[in-house]
Amino acid sequence: MPLQLHISTEQKVLVKLVPTTPGNKPAPVDGVPTWTMGEGGDETITLEPSADGLSCIIRAGDAPSADNIITVSADADMGEGITTITDTIELDVTDPMAANLGLVAEPPTLKDETAGPTGAPKPQGFDAAKAAEKKSSK
User: Fold this and answer.
1) What is the CA radius of gyration of the chain?
2) Element holding 132 (H helix, E strand)
3) What is the C-alpha separation between 49 and 57, in angstroms, rounded?
4) Is residue 110 part of a domain?
5) Residue 35 β-bridge partners
6) Residue 12 pairs with which residues in a beta bridge?
7) How confident is the model over 26-75, as pLDDT tens digits?
């Protein structure tokens, strides 16, 4: 059964090989296991195997992608022969979820545009047109 992994575009995951016998006891492998992205997989996903091939950092690409198949192969025959065993990883990469709301405040303003800085009504300015009209009507 494949290993199913789900990571976001901001994540990476370390995957380790733990080879076992049919009796579920630890077993060695011959040589360095190989890690490969299957055909049609997201080419922006990077595989960074360790020098001994027994672990690999899988780094997500920048865009969501589904059904990426990564195959790991190793030689189980510790002698001169080759008996290849393989396992697979099904990797889905999703957009990250919001982690915080990121509140941002605008600069404060007066709550009532007709109020002055102390909250008192703004003084009415001299209206020359009204004064002239009043004077001419006398």
Assistant:
1) 35
2) helix 128-136
3) 6
4) no
5) 72
6) 59
7) 999 999 999 999 988 889 999 999 999 999 999 999 999 999 999 999 99
131: in domain: no
Q: Given this model, what pLDDT does residue 111 score?
A: 84
CATH number at residue 8: 2.60.40.10
Tokens describing residue 48? 């960074």
Token code pair at residue 104: 């941002």
Range of the domain at 12: 3-94
Provide the whole-model pTM: 0.72
Instruction: Report the chain's terminal Cα–Cα distance, integer Å.
Output: 102
3-class DSSP state for residue 69? Answer: strand
Token output for 76: 């189980």
Determine which of 33-42, 88-97, 110-119 has the lowest per-residue pLDDT on average. Answer: 110-119
**Is 17 within a domain?**
yes
79 belongs to a structural domain: yes
Total number of domains in the chain: 1
